Amino acid sequence: MNREPAGVVVRTVCRRLTPFVQLFGLYVIMHGHSSPGGGFQGGVILAASAILLVLAEGTDWIRRVSLPALTVLTSTGVLLYAGVGGLCLALGANFLDYSVLPFAEPRSVGMLLIEIGVGITVMAALVSIFRDLVMFE
Amino acid sequence: MNVQQSAIPVLVVLIPLVTSLVLPVLGWWYRPAVFPVALAGLAVTCGTAIIAAYTVVVGGPLHYYLGGWAPPWGIEFRIDSLSVLMLVLLTVITLLIGIYSKHSVLKEIPSKEVPFYTVYLLLVTGLAGLVSTADMFNLYVFLEITSLTSYALVSLGGGAAVVSAFRYVILGTVGAAFYLLAVGYLYSMTGTLNMADLARILPGLYSSTTVLVGFAFFVIGVSIKMALFPMHSWLPGAYSDAPSAVSALIAATTTKVAAYVLIRVMFFVFEPRFSIDVIPVTTVLAWMGSIAMILGSVMAIGQHDFKRMLAYSSVAQIGYIVLGVGLANEMGFTGGVLHIVNHAFMKGGLFLVAGAIVYRTGVREIRGFRNLSGKMPVTAATFTLCAFAMVGIPPTGGFFSKLYLILGAINAGQWVFVAVIVLSSVLALAYLFNVLRFMYFPRDIPLDPEAHPSPSDTITRDEAPWTMLGPMIAVAAGIVLLGLFNGEIVRRFIEPVIPVGLGR
Amino acid sequence: MKSLHVVVTVVTGLLLVLGSLDMSSPGDPNSPPATHVSPRYVESALEETAVPNMVTAVLADYRGFDTLGEVTVIFTGAVAVLLILRVTRDEDET
Amino acid sequence: MPSGFNFDFVVGHFNTVTYVVLMMIGFYAMTGKTNLVKKLVGMNIFQWSIILFVVSLAAKRGATIPIALGGHASLDGGTALDAAQYVNPLPHVLMLTAIVVGVAITGVALALLLRIYRRYGTLEEDELLERIRHS
Fold first, then answer.
1. Distance from CA of C42 to the nearest CA of B (A)
2. What is the pLDDT of residues D47-65, one digit of tens each?
3. Is residue A103 in a domain?
4. Closest to B338 in 3D by CA, of B324, B326, B319
5. Which of A93, B103, B298, B484 is the most exposed place for a label (fewest CB within 10 A)?
6. Assigned domain for A2 exists
7. Residue A84, domain member (yes or no)
């Protein structure tokens, strides 16, 4: 499935809109602590902005995104998650017990790192799945 | 509170997970290192499982509070000797098949080595987690990881594999959804997800219909995952269309783990008296197991395709395990659990044999196995040993698990089940001996003209490569060792966990 | 064949409705789920984890391992789709 | 069914009746329909009805969303948070996981459907079985 860029109106609107969608996605990831949201929802919003771009700009740019890079990005998110858990293990507490992290508010910071890891993984995984669907013919 | 408990329980799940995450990075950066690192991950997981087994046998069950939160608020890992027996079984089998699949699967799809081993290790993560967790919802998450990886691996076989994989997706998801529904129903009545906490609260609620219906849907969901007879329609297509190494992997692990989940929840979360007296679940399971044993074997006899025959034989062997659970006495329970271990090795070995034959000769029809013993002696010998174990001939493990099942049936006074076990073994002898006949004594079989051109008229030794033979020999050795040391296994791993409340 | 499906579906539905007979009615503040485990999450999530959003606190801290399994499922899904779809047309004709 | 179908039962348990109706639509579509895409749609309805059911367990009459009002202020305000004021967060966490699992399964199932359609040119089950037998 390859798709030519949409009309100029759609392209300019989407091109103006995408940064704000991505900013909102980042906001949702980072503010999972005090407002509804978190890693999953933010990651999906970021992935949606990538798909919006494909609908507007056509599929040629997503073909150039190298697939191993996306898979590696997906695995780094989970590695970050397991890494934070492993760090707690190394610092002498149970796996994923953030109270030993060297921060003022260890649990809150630990959870923030977790949310970032989840956000990266969800975003990269959904873009990778979408890219596979685009490349498949 | 940061209590540091020995980290073995979580390491068994963490090592395969981290290895599977590292593989894509390796595949992008330095490709040749992917297979060695994957093997190293599997080997270290196996080692950790053996250490866990030693610790549990010596020091009793291991507990681990994830995140440092005590249950029922946090998630708990609880590894008793039943869990650790499954852990060692699963990690050993997946290690052997991991070596085997290097040639067998990747010959057809060389470009996919990185995603294949990533998904492979994720399957091991799912299995290890499923067996260690003591939290009902965490078990659902690991069940889904195991299922998702199985769907992807089944679809790797050429041709109709994608259709069988899709049918497996639909039925597998129905099973998992029924399990989730059961967790929802039990949660609505108890408010907790931790197994030990549930076991404490549930006895007071045995009369409530919600708990009853929840348990009924749990059994249906797990039976679908276990391919128990009426709900087995996904199994023949999935096993026979998947690459042989994947068939061996799935036949030896996913259905066994589903049987473990049935035992874990039925006897350890609910008290045995619930499924014996309150609702006759064990009686229903015993009869469904018997029907599976007979009809599975009958259908296996009629097959021409070797792997499809093995698939229907799996449906029958699951019947043994369910019968063991259904007998609801100590001998039956021991026989059922022992048969989980034995069948994993037996059926894994048989599918590895099928893979070696397809790899070297491309033949799938049993008729095409004419004097294979000359052409592939080691493969034929492995098949013979696995066949003996399936039928239950003494030195092999299969004999002992059938012996315990028969003793259990006698203790339960159910002579009809003894007859069913013997009849099913005879049927197994029929379809396995038929293959042996082609392999070893082809001369007295009339060469029907339209049979596949027999690849081995000129008897030249042409064995499978060593990376395939090694695991097959190891599995064969495992079957014999299971037979010799079955007393040890029962005494150290099964007896300590026989649930109180089962009949004598 | 179709009537069999209808029968099975209706029987399953009735069984489920029957099953929910003695569930506490929706919104009941002292139903088992609301009184057994979750009160601690509500009452002490803020002091223990300094995070006002209790769902995030339970998601990432109390039951953080569930979410790790969760993220693994998403990773598995991405690699599985990659494994399934990366087949060129001629490879697929076997 | 209990004697005289008491109407207040239905009103009292509207969440269960709703999700059971949804689930049976999904279950029937999954087993009854022959088109693979319709089976997949049925599977999704089936999964989402369970998610609806478990989330409905979390509701508490008169309770607000599970985010501590006033953020950190309510902590130093000294008033301990009363569990009855806030909705039960646990089912919401569980169903977030179940939703993501559903997404992953649907992704894999759609990938399989693409492969099936490209190889066999049909998504009707009976045509499919017949073409498999010939190939």
1. 12
2. 999 999 999 888 888 888 8
3. yes
4. B324
5. B484
6. no
7. yes
